[in-house]
């Protein structure tokens, strides 16, 4: 049996027990317990709010849908082509299969938003190819996955292992761990003003999934680095760190397009301070020193992200419910 989580042998990873990476097995079981479906949320109840929102607020919501929908699908390509084929642990494959279903479920959740609110779908769909700040973010991600879809990646070599880690950083850390969370904060900010409460419940569930995706990605990066000490060079560390800082700069430009004039209680600078706060947390989780050292301007997000215990008092749905919650007390 391989002593490394990296490996492309088809007949490796065909036995689940003994579990070699308990963290992956635990995350799979938690992900299954967290299963939810978009139409469980009565999104139509938010229509009254949507009708009385300002043009800038509607622009922000449309912009978020423009970004999230294609990028959830892009994450699935990164998992299918860039992660799954290069791992040999059954428990990691189980988790990735559930994560891919979750990304598909998120796409359907955002489609539900587009179906419910009178958002111009064509405008929402084309923005990710016409808005320069959005295009730049997508080009950044595509650059890393292309190495795995259009070239052969040999994870038995040091450079192949580096490319594997680069792809994980691009998708799990920058895209899911910073860019997505920045968008979640804006989406959930409407609830802070008593708007789009049911939409926020939908986002709560997505955040709950994404928090596990992030945990899996960080654990996987740290495992690969631990099992392959030859990757632990100052030069490679600097490159990874710079990827995250570049991601922050791209997100800053994107947020200025998202909120060009600001909305009640929030502008691009507020969001970008949160982005820098997030980036510092991700840097620390990877073992780096924080770079920006800014305070979290959205303290309320700490509660909003703890969705395992969150009850939305405005509706009958408890967002902490779990499917098959054995031993959790429900």
Task: Give a description of the structure.
The protein has 330 residues and is an all-alpha fold. It has a single domain (22-305), classed as Ribonucleotide Reductase, subunit A (Orthogonal Bundle). It contains 11 helices and no strands. It has helices spanning 22-33, 47-52, 55-82, 90-116, 121-130, 132-149, 158-192, 197-227, 234-258, 268-285, 300-305. The radius of gyration is 20 Å and the shape is globular. Mean pLDDT is 82; it is low at 305-330.
Briefly note the structural class of the backbone. mainly alpha
Question: What share of residues is helical?
Answer: 55-70%
Strand content: under 5%
Number of helices: 11
Order of helices and strands: HHHHHHHHHHH
Shape: globular
What is the number of domains? 1
Mean pLDDT: 82
CATH H-level superfamily: Ribonucleotide Reductase, subunit A
Assembly type of the chains comes to single chain
Distance between the termini: 38 Å
Radius of gyration: 20 Å
Cofactor: Fe cation
Binding site for Fe cation 1: 72, 103, 106
Organism: Jiangella asiatica
Family: Belongs to the ribonucleoside diphosphate reductase small chain family.
Element layout with pairings:
Blueprint: H1 22-33, H2 47-52, H3 55-82, H4 90-116, H5 121-130, H6 132-149, H7 158-192, H8 197-227, H9 234-258, H10 268-285, H11 300-305
Helix pairs in contact: 1-4, 1-8, 3-4, 3-5, 3-6, 3-7, 4-8, 5-6, 6-7, 6-9, 7-8, 7-9, 7-10, 9-10
In short:
The chain has 330 residues and is mostly helical.
């Amino acid at each position: 049996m391989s002593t490394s989580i990296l490996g492309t042998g088809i007949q490796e990873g065909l036995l689940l027990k003994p579990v070699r990476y308990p963290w992956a097995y635990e995350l799979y079981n938690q992900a299954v317990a967290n299963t939810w479906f978009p139409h469980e949320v009565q999104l139509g109840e938010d229509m009254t709010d949507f009708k009385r929102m300002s043009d800038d607020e509607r622009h922000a919501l449309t912009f978020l849908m423009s970004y999230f929908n294609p990028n959830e699908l892009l994450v699935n390509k990164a998992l299918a082509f860039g992660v799954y084929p290069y791992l040999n642990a059954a428990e990691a494959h189980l988790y990735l299969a559930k994560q891919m279903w979750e990304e598909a479920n998120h796409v359907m959740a955002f489609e539900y938003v587009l179906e419910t609110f009178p958002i111009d779908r064509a405008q929402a769909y084309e923005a990710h190819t016409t808005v320069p700040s959005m295009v730049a973010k997508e080009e950044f991600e595509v650059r890393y996955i292309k190495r795995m879809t259009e070239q052969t990646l040999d994870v038995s070599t040091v450079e192949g292992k580096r490319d594997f880690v680069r792809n994980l950083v691009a998708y799990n850390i920058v895209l899911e761990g910073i860019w997505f969370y920045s968008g979640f904060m804006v989406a959930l900010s409407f609830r802070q003003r008593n708007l789009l409460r049911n939409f926020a419940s939908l986002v709560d569930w997505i955040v709950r999934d994404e928090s596990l995706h992030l945990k899996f990605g960080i654990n996987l990066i740290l495992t690969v680095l631990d099992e392959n000490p030859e990757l632990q060079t100052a030069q490679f560390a600097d490159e990874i760190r710079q990827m995250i800082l570049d991601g922050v700069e791209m997100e800053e430009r994107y947020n200025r397009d998202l909120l060009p004039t600001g909305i009640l209680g929030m502008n691009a600078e507020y969001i970008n301070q949160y982005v820098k706060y997030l980036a510092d947390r991700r840097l620390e989780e990877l073992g780096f020193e924080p770079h920006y050292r800014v305070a979290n301007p959205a303290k309320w997000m700490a509660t909003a992200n703890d969705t395992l215990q969150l009850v939305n008092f405005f509706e009958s749905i408890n967002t902490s419910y779990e499917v098959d919650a054995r031993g959790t007390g429900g």
